[in-house]
Amino acid sequence: MGINIAVDGPAGAGKSSIAREASARLGFIYVDTGALYRSVALYALENDVLEQDKLIQSLDKINVELKFISGVQHVLLCGRDVSDKIRTPEVSMNASKVSAVPEVREFLFGLQQKIAAENDIIMDGRDIGTVVLPNADLKVFLTASAEERAKRRFLEMKDKPDCPSYEEILEDINKRDYNDMHRETAPLKRAEDAVLLDTTEMTKAQVVEKLISMIEGVR
Ligand code: DC
User: Fold this and answer.
1) Whose CA is nearest to atom 4 of ligand 1?
2) What pLDDT does 2 receive?
3) Distances in Å between the alpha carbon of 102 and those of 105, 157, 201?
4) Among residues 117, 99, 116, 121, which one has the least CA distance to residue 108?
5) Which of 39, 43, 94, 132 is the most buried (most CB within 10 A)?
6) Are 215 and 5 in contact (CB under 8 A)?
7) What is the pTM of this model?
8) Mean pLDDT in each 10-residue stretch from start to end of the chain (219 residues)?
């Protein structure tokens, strides 16, 4: 059994960049569970099965695997590496939708638990501390104001072609927060025993140091 660190929080709170860096420094594997929901969304978009019943019927045709190459997560959808393809705004919005389907959550549950059982991991998502790893060694709920999260995302994307405006990003973040917090199954919420880390006023380096010191405390 490895050391299991659960990091949950809303879209754009910096979970992935913080968890990735802390994992690299500690020699842990970083598991980005959002990529799993994104892969199911990509499958649904490509195969025209976004409608809930059709998606549920298609689940037995979907094969999602995670591979770690030099510590970096790659997600394979039916054998194809889709790590880049799942990062579009269209996939983001549909990932939020498919993740509300209980059968989809059930479908991805075992894979997440297996990886956690076999490795020292920092796993990020929405329900890691509440559902996937209720016995995690440490649970952190990472958040920041919606405006700050939108600002960070805008700065990250502003030099890319077709970058949405700050207002569009903020609207998208607010929509996804609402969907993720109000779904019936495994909604985004802080586990009772999770440490709340509000990063609105913190730099990335400060958050990484803070997370590492908390992990050192439970190692
Ligand atoms: O972390 P992300 O933005 O890549 O996640 C994409 C969507 O997947 C997010 O809107 C909600 C969903 N998700 C989830 O429901 N549970 C998780 N553990 C991770 C992601």
Assistant:
1) 34
2) 87
3) 5, 32, 35
4) 99
5) 39
6) yes
7) 0.93
8) 93 93 96 97 98 98 94 94 95 94 97 95 97 97 97 91 93 93 94 97 96 96
At the fourth CATH level, the homologous superfamily of domain 4-216 is P-loop containing nucleotide triphosphate hydrolases (3.40.50.300)
Shortest-distance Cα residue to atom 9 of ligand 1: 96
31, 33, 97: which to mutate for ligand 1, most atoms within 8 A of CB? 33
202, amino acid identity: M
126 touches ligand 1 (CB under 6 Å): yes
Strand runs (DSSP E) across 84-194, as ranges? 121-125, 138-143
Token pair 């958040």 in the structure block, residue? 143
Domain boundaries, the chain: 4-216
**Residue 127 CB–ligand 1 contact under 6 Å:** yes
